[in-house]
Amino acid sequence: MSAHDMGAAHGHHDTHGAEPHGSLRGYVIGFVLSVILTAVPFWLVMSGVLDNATATAFAIMGFAVVQIVVHMVFFLHMNFRSEGGWTMLALGFTLILVVITLAGSLWVMYHLNTNMMPSLHDMRQIP
Amino acid sequence: MSSATMTEASGEVPVFYEVDEHPHPEGHSTSLGFWIYLMSDCLIFAALFAIYGVLGGSYAAGPGPRELFDLNLVALNTAMLLFSSITYGFAMLTMEKDRVAVTLVWLAVTGLFGLAFLGIELYEFHHLISEGATPQRSAFLSAFFTLVGTHGLHVTFGLIWLTTLMVQVAQRGLVTANKRRLMCLSMFWHFLDVIWIGVFTFVYLMGMLR
C-alpha cells in the first residue's frame, strides 16, 4: 500500500527524470516481510515439520514467489505508472520468456530422460 | 533545416517530416534502459536455472546436495544480502536529502555486507572444492557452480561499481549524474537480491528435499 502511495506522490516528477526512491516506511516494511518470508522456508526445511517433501517443496516455492513480489514492490518500486508502464511491459515480456525457458526445458528434458535411456537413467546405480 | 517539406504538384496538403532529434534532458530514459538491461540479465539467469533444473539430479555417483550443502551457512549468506539491500535503501533515502557523508556511510555499510556475502560464498566454494566436489565432478556440480558463481560474479561487479560510485560521490558530491548512477546501482543490487531468492529456494532448500 505504501509503495502505491509513494508512486502516486512522485508521479508528477516523471516528466523531469526524478525517480521514486521509496520511503523509510516502505523499506522497513519490505525488509521485515522479506525476513519473515526467508526465515519460514529455511525453518520448514531445516526442522522438517511438514514431514512431506512434496508439500514442503510447494510451500517454499510459494514463499519464494511472494518474497519476489515483495522485493519488486518495496525495493525495486515496481508499479504500473513508472515510465508510462513500459517497465511493467518489459517485466511482463521477460516473465513470459522465463516461464517458457524454465517450463519448456524441464518438460522436454524430463521426457527425454524418462523415454530414452531407461537403464542409464539413474547414474547412481552404476558401480 | 529542422524539417523537410514535400509539396506535391497537385496541390495536396503538404506533408512535414521532422528530421532532427527532439531535445531530451540528459538521462531521461536511463532508468527504462537500465531496467531492460536487468530484464536481459534475468533471461541469462532463467537459462542457468533451467540448466540447473535439468542437470540438478545428475550426480554421476558423486555427492548430492544433502552431503554438500550447509543450510546454516546459506541462511547467514542470505541474511548478509538482505541486510545489504536495506542499507542500500537507506543510502538512497539519505541521497534524496543530499546528505553526502551519511550516504557514503550507508554505501560503505552496503559494501561491507556485500563483501561478507562474497566471503562466505568463496569459503563455501573452497570447502566444496577441497572435499573433491569440483565443477568437473558431475553435471549437478557444473550447473551448481555456474549458476551460483554467475550470481557471485554479479555481486563482485556490483561491489566494484559501488566502490567507483563512492569515489565519485566523494569527489563531486551528489550531483544529478551521480544520483542517476546510484539509482541504477540500486536497481542492480535489489535485482541481485531477487535472483538470490530463486537461488536459495531452488538450489539449496529444494536440494535438501531431494
Q: What would a concise description of this structure say?
A:
Chain B: Keywords: Cell membrane, Electron transport, Membrane, Oxidoreductase, Transmembrane, Transmembrane helix, Transport. The complex is a heterodimer of chains A (127) and B (210). Chain A has 127 residues and is an all-alpha fold.
Describe this structure in words.
The complex is a heterodimer of chains A (127) and B (210). By secondary structure, chain A is mainly alpha-helical. Chain A has helices spanning 2-10, 24-47, 53-74, 86-116. Among the domains of chain A are: 24-77; 83-115. Chain A is built from 4 helices and no strands. Chain A is flat. Residues 1-19 of chain A have low confidence and may be disordered. Chain B has 210 residues and is mainly alpha-helical. Chain B has one domain (51-209): Cytochrome c oxidase, subunit III, four-helix bundle (Four Helix Bundle (Hemerythrin (Met), subunit A)), CATH 1.20.120. Chains A and B meet through helix 2, helix 3 and helix 4 of A and helix 1, helix 3 and helix 6 of B. Chain A: Belongs to the cytochrome c oxidase bacterial subunit 4 family. Chain A: Heterooctamer of two A chains, two B chains, two C chains and two D chains.
Question: Helicity of chain B, in percent?
Answer: over 70%
The beta-strand count of chain B equals 2
- Estimate the global geometry of chain A from the Cα principal axes: flat
Number of strands of chain A: 0
Order of helices and strands of chain A: HHHH
Which chains make the largest contact?
Answer: A-B, 50 and 54 residues
Strand count, sense and barrel status of the largest sheet of chain B are: 2 strands, antiparallel
- Mean pLDDT of chain A comes to 80
**In whole angstroms, how far apart are the ends of chain A?**
58 Å
What characterizes the major β-sheet of chain A? Answer: none
Taking all Cα atoms into account, the compactness measure Rg of chain B is 24 Å
Report the structural category of chain B. Answer: mainly alpha
Q: How many helices of chain A in DSSP terms? A: 4
pLDDT < 50 runs, ≥5 residues of chain A:
1-19
Shape, per Cα inertia axes of chain B = flat
Helix percentage of chain A: 55-70%
Strand order of the largest sheet of chain B: 1-2
In the predicted model, the low-confidence regions of chain B spanning at least 5 consecutive residues are 1-8
Q: Oligomeric status of the shown chains? A: heterodimer
Task: Work out the strand percent of chain A.
Answer: under 5%
